[in-house]
């Protein structure tokens, strides 16, 4: 098994370092190779996604990614900015399915802004389509309006579109994910207004015929936003398009109250994936040794489950994280009075010890 290690910028190297220790503790035979990405790629090679990094990512069985971005790169031209590395990896590797679990560990229920009984025990999964929709649809631009009520004025426009193949393949990922969980899938769209959503719904209903064990329901995105904060435990797996998923997955993440705890996976059609924490590079705390590495460690657990087919080892890592939380060990972002405050590397020590 070859794993590409792409630490990136800010806290990326610190948190990825701890996840690598956990993987090594599980299996010394993992072949791991590191490469620069994001701002670090630009600084060393003049591009956020250097050719050698892309080659390594293509060759590997899975990719463990830290985070990219730093204020010092904010004024670069768009195509050289660190965030372009993620878009480049997604499109070059065909990573069209984004899996973001929102799990509220009982030990951290106090971190949520919602009432304890609404969120305690929350465990939902958002499956977001990642490479299509209005974010990529053509035509798009800013122009002088050629017609309509505001003809002659400047206008901005984008195009929402989904091809049948795109909807089918994300629907399959979602139904298969549901099969591994509680077998309930909610497809979120805006079919009361958008043609693209009507088409989306039609295809999801058709794919459902291949998964009769999964119960499927449909929800408009505005209602889904309300239900996520009203009764989030009613959801098991949610599948939705790129833009709705972008927004809902952040809302779902915040139900847990702790961004340092949330892993994510982006998969291709063969379950090869890129695994990264849901948070960014946190330049405000980089180099201080206080970042929470658990989201990255839990991303490594997802990698074991989805790309490396090692569900038992994934469960061991997740149990080790639970055990560390039960012992009252906390990094600063999830710390409460009376509990043990630890650094990034001490948190790594604790997870390795629990393993
Ligand atoms: P951020 O997620 O980096 O940070 C938001 C807040 O959460 C900060 O206060 C930070 O200190 C804290 N935080 C984040 N992760 C933490 C952790 N593991 N432990 C403890 N605290 C943590 O978001 P931002 O500040 O909006 O963005 C910073 C940079 O990250 C920007 O350059 C942005 O473009 C980039 N970014 C990258 C990704 C990615 O690589 N996938 C995602 C989002 C943002």
Automatic annotation (TrEMBL):
Its cofactor is Mn(2+); Mg(2+). NAD(+) binds at residues 280-292. One of its GO terms (molecular function) is NAD binding. It is an enzyme of class 1 (oxidoreductase). Homodimer. NCBIfam families: leuB. This is 3-isopropylmalate dehydrogenase. It comes from Oxalobacter vibrioformis.
